[in-house]
Amino acid sequence: MTAPLAITDYLRQHIRTVPDWPAPGVQFRDITPLLQDPRVFRVLIDAFVHRYMEPARRPEVVAGLDARGFIIGSVIAYELGVGFVPIRKKGKLPYTTVQETFELEYGSATVELHTDAVTPGQRVLLIDDLIATGGTMMAGKKLLEKLGATVTEGAAIVVLPELGGAQRLREAGLELFTLVDFAGH
Questions:
Q1: Does CATH place domain 5-181 in 3.40.50.2020?
Q2: Which residues form the signal peptide (predicted)?
Q3: Which of 174, 107, 177 is nearest to 142 (CA)?
């Protein structure tokens, strides 16, 4: 599911495309302009908050993926009046953790979560800035489920459907909500 067209168009205008970064042929979707303008940042956060204020969708905690998922996830958690937990790259959390390794285009990566970050049965919204191949979000989902939490939805600002991540996540049973679809752009 995606946001209403007016919000989508407004946000799209504030996402910068950086050609050939970090490698030739890549069209990098840079969300930092969304964060720099307080009015645009408010529209961005409100789009998520209004969705998750609905009782049927309201999480008990928001989990943000390292690192841009921390920026938007913590603000959304604050606005909803719920807790926030970070899912970090390996070696960044100081307490006992669970780990999940996933494949990247070239190699692999590992993310971690504190073992006391969520409780069994807790309803969790999993958030990141962008869904490309879906590996990071899938790893986050698996970590939360290892601890017994229920991931109610995965959310992101941007989805790049041609990379197949959104489809893989949906096939794995994760509902998705995104604001800007860059299909064919």
A1: yes
A2: none
A3: 174
